[in-house]
Amino acid sequence: MTIEVRNLVKKFGSFAALDGVDLKVDNGELLALLGPSGSGKTTLLRIIAGLDWPDSGEVSFNGEDALAQGARERHVGFVFQHYALFRHMTVFENVAFGLRVQPRAVRKEEAAIRARVKELLDLVQLDWLADRYPSQLSGGQRQRIALARALAIEPRILLLDEPFGALDAKVRKELRKWLRSLHHEINVTSIFVTHDQEEALEVANRVVVMDKGRIEQIGSPDDVYESPATAFVHGFIGESIELPVRIADGMVRFGDRPLALAADGLVPGASRLFVRRHDMLVGPPGSGAFEGAVQQVRNFGPVQRAEVELAGGETIEIDAPRDKELRAGDAIGLQPRRYRIFAG
Amino acid sequence: MTMQLADSVSLSSSEAKARAHAAAARDNLRTEPRAVRIVIITLAVSFLSVFVVLPLVVVFAQAFSRGILAYLAALAEPEALSAIKLTLLVAAISVGLNLVFGLVAAWAIAKFDFKGRTFLITLIDLPFSVSPVISGLVFVLLFGAQGYFGGWLRDHDIQVLFAVPGIALATTFVTFPFVARALIPLMQEQGTQEEEAAISLGASGLQTFFRVTLPNIKWGVLYGVLLCNARAMGEFGAVSVVSGHIRGETNTMPLLVEILYNEYQFVAAFAIASLLAMLALITLIAKTVLERHLAEGHDASDH
Q1: Which of A42, A76, A101 to mutate to test the interface with B (most CBs of B within 10 A)?
Q2: pLDDT digit string (tens) for B63-120?
Q3: A77-120 tens-digit pLDDT
Q4: Do B102 and B176 touch, CB atoms closer than 8 A?
Q5: Are residues A174 and B3, on separate chains, in Cβ contact within 8 Å?
């Protein structure tokens, strides 16, 4: 199932949750909608599911107008952020719900329903919880039951709203891997919403970065990490150093110092320079574009993080390999290995 | 794949233990001397005994003052039987109507966001803030011989006032808030996610209501119905205004108690009163049971 969204606009009062969104999702894709809260990602997901309606724009599934159908007819599996399991039903009945409410003409026999539910509970590895109630399950178990329930109707599309948002860090990591392999197994076109960049980059085939109701960038995890299209994406994904610079006379200036960086093709005026923390290489004074003094050094696993006061006045944090000897008070030179400059 | 998953059930029980600990610690730190505590508790208990338990005991004592046969004979009087029947009928009508209205109103308020929502909530509370006598008078103004619809009703030979419809209307008006009030906070807390889940799984509106919404609020519904019924059977003021006190026809149990008492038929008056008192006791017990169920429901949704 392919999904196509064209020029979607949705306003809540004067707040534009979606401000002209275009998106194409290919068959069998596992797509992440990534953005800070309030960026419109959940609204987009709910409109695709038919739980919300846009003010204008189009949504089509396989070329057919989806907005002509209600949520009930769209055949979309939706996994809610807080799972929304039916609290008065057992796990078994929760998963069976979608099969039991089908019109009599297409409804399966009781035995077939039981077999299908069993199969789904096996798929999410929770068959031993069939007789429990949702309140007796842990967060991770509820998450997987919610997924099994959504899969019961053999959805054409699977939508997950912050699927791991309410779980603790360890469970979240395990479920991520599990979701990836599950998607590989069932191969349903899937979209999940997350505000966690690590989650998006690790799980998805393609990432859509959103901010303020607009799409900032669409690309593979590598694309959005390695070549961010906008200042927002660079700042949001990966830990970046952001410095105010000026482009003038074909040079990049930081404060009153010209930097030894290429300024070809850059628009003159105030700009922002972005560098990943680990892309700032440390050398002896005078060896790079920046000069600085180390303020403080802390060790984090494979890297050491140093706070450096630059000659231009800003204080930045850089990540250097552990074998590089850095001590508070050292004067160092810094050269960005890779960087991007965005106007504005 | 095996997974180490945090068990939220055990987590909440350890939380409860911690809370109990804190309470015990507070007990130890309590500074009031024993004597003060005893005095306060004694005051509260004796006040309740004098003002609540004693009257209840007196009702039963008076009812049985001439022996059980006189008691039963008083209840078997045609007038008494007709009052009991009328009370049950009126309660059934008003509880039935208020169940439907209450569900609809609570649904609208809890699940939709619309203009005038807060106004509707205020309106629902109106019967609580108006004296029942005035509620009764409103119906006299509307349906009485000189009232707005009086002429039309007489022309079509429909008897509202001084008949069952009037009594049922007045009772329904007075008891309207109970079901809605019990359901609004419950439904607001539960939100709309389960309904959305049901619809996205292919359930129709009716299936969603009967399979998801109603089971989630059933204890709240019962609670509202119980309180609504207790008030409907016990209502005096509004009914007194619209009933007309036609003996054997439009007297409900509370009205009959007053009439009999005024005629010095104490045993008969208290015999009927004892039935109402029993209703109160049963309501109280059922209420306690339901409140426990409701609390459990809340706990379950906490996780």
Answers
A1: A101
A2: 998 889 999 999 999 999 999 999 999 999 999 999 999 999 999 998 888 888 889 8
A3: 999 989 999 999 999 999 999 999 999 998 999 999 999 999 99
A4: yes
A5: yes
Are the beta carbons of A224 and A233 closer than 8 angstroms? Answer: yes
Residue of A nearest to B195 (CA): A84
Residues in chain A within 8 Å Cβ distance of B199: 51, 70-72
Instruction: Write out the H or E segment, with its range, that includes residue B301.
Output: helix B266-302
Q: From chain B, pick out residues whose CB is under 8 angstroms from the CB of A84.
A: 193-194, 196-197
Sorted by where each starts, the structural domains of chain A and their CATH numbers stand as 3-231 (3.40.50.300), 240-343 (2.40.50.140)
Query: Distance between CA atoms of B116 and A289, rounded to whole angstroms?
Result: 64
pTM, 2 dp = 0.79
Question: Residue A69: pLDDT above 60?
Answer: yes
Asked if B194 lies within 8 A of A84 by C-beta distance, the reply is: yes
pLDDT digits (tens, 9 = 90+) for A109-118: 999 999 999 9
Count the Cβ atoms, other than its own, within 10 Å of residue A27. 11
B197·A137 Cβ contact <8 A = no
Averaged pLDDT score across all residues of chain A: 90
Q: Which CATH number fits domain B67-302: 3.90.1300.10, 1.20.1290.10, 1.10.3720.10, 3.20.20.70?
A: 1.10.3720.10
A49 interface with B at CB cutoff 8 Å: yes
pLDDT reported for residue A89: 94
Nearest CA in chain B to A134: B300
Region B42-61: mean pLDDT is: 91
Per-residue pLDDT, A344: 74
Average pLDDT score over residue span B212-228: 92
What is the ipTM, given to two decimal places?
A: 0.84
Taking CA atoms, what residue in A is nearest to B206? A101
A290-300 β-sheet, strand order: A280-283, A331-336, A290-300, A303-310, A315-321
pLDDT surpassing 70 at residue B262: yes
Shortest Cα distance from B223 to chain A (angstroms)?
Answer: 18
Is A174 in CB contact (< 8 Å) with chain B?
yes
